[in-house]
Amino acid sequence: MLTDERFALILDCVKHQDIVKIQELVERTGASESTIRRDLTELENKKFIKRVHGGARLLKGKLQEASVPEKSSKSLHEKKKIAQFAASKVEKGDCIFIDAGTTTQQMIGYLPHTEIVVVTNGLMHVEELLERGIKTYLIGGAVKPRTNAMVGRGALESMKAYRFDKAFMGTNGVHPEFGYTTPDPEEAQVKELAISLTREVFMLADDSKIGEIAFASFGKIQDAFLIVNELEEETVSVYQKLTTVKVVGS
Amino acid sequence: MLTDERFALILDCVKHQDIVKIQELVERTGASESTIRRDLTELENKKFIKRVHGGARLLKGKLQEASVPEKSSKSLHEKKKIAQFAASKVEKGDCIFIDAGTTTQQMIGYLPHTEIVVVTNGLMHVEELLERGIKTYLIGGAVKPRTNAMVGRGALESMKAYRFDKAFMGTNGVHPEFGYTTPDPEEAQVKELAISLTREVFMLADDSKIGEIAFASFGKIQDAFLIVNELEEETVSVYQKLTTVKVVGS
DNA sequence: TCAAAAACGATCAAAAACATTCAAATATGT
DNA sequence: ACATATTTGAATGTTTTTGATCGTTTTTGA
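YS: structure for the whole thing
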């Protein structure tokens, strides 16, 4: 049996059974255990399957990616500083938009008032907002599995019914020329619309995002008040020519 | 049996039975008690289940927990029977609406296909739907704190963009004359609109709702296929004059 | 309340699965 | 045909998983 034949057979097994034992593969291919192991190792490197003790498993978010409670505590602390400053900008009676994402989520705990109205596209924010007794609106649309953000036509339509005093946005890239960028074009659409509906936009970005460019752009640097945790003097001045910048320090 | 196979089996048991004994798992997996204990410990650490003396329990997300104060396991079992039958009505390729509520939530675990599109107004449903890899749309609007249901103008507007093959609704009252009723007028609006956008409506009601009348009406008996857990012969015939009734028995 | 029964966590040795190495078999290129 | 590269399977020692045991804690029922 050829190598590629074995590969096909293995992938077929995994696809149909979700999980397959090495012994079963040995039996079905007639190859030795060593060979199967080598095959599995290679298929794992090529990101086709996930090896587990005793066999291999389908590589999918089915059971694996469900829980994401892990955070690097360093970057979390940075995010908290940024979030805290951003939250201080919220005034009683404001109608604000809070973008989906982990940095913006941190804001919720620091919000200085509960007499505000919050609109968000981040499913994960809702629980904490309600817990604090804040009037919460969620925009509609398709739910993006990995990030639990609302995207798509429904999200855009649904958001057009609102106007915001302030918006707090996350971003994956901040660049003087290319502006604010994010990897997902659908999320970019939502962000772009949110910005256009808002009087005063705040962009929350930790230092790892500065100078980066992701795939989809959703705004120019001057569209938002930029909040970062740390930044060299010279870099700050570049951005300060374009917009207001606040370095919260770490 | 591989570790991951056991994990899948355990999670499956917990999801369908809410609670599972160690002995049952030993029996079903063929593994030793020690191994099952280790598995449960690990699954608890990964936040998939909650260990209890003698077994393990479903770990509900806080969003779900909030709205489900405490349910007698009897009525939960009834709900499951109803949900199971309702789920069997879903066919591959369907676009369905699933109403907010605990009974409809039970359906998700029993859905026979994942090649469907689900629209819901129930925030608590989203997590489980995505976990099963189902394409999920959430309608927009205000989030109702106690039930985590989407209501209000935004919800209505946002739903109008969809049409459904089937809808699965919960209700607080079922009455021959007054039809289906619920205490909250805002939720009633949403339900009413959902029904009007759907070809085939299923109403899920346990026996405690039969003959009851709540404040706000959202449909006549004949608007939906009625699914109940148990019902006296004579009562059944009353409703059967008006619509199709399925008694799933307990 | 108390004692028996059940469930528990910790420990340890056996078993299974593992990566690595090496030589034989096979394929490839000149 | 020859030398070289690749693939294969067996043998090696190592790591992970497993099931049994034991003393402790929790639950149960009188």
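YS: worth flagging: Residues 61-73 of chain A have pLDDT under 50 and may be disordered.
IM: good catch. Also Chain A has two domains: 3-58, 73-247.
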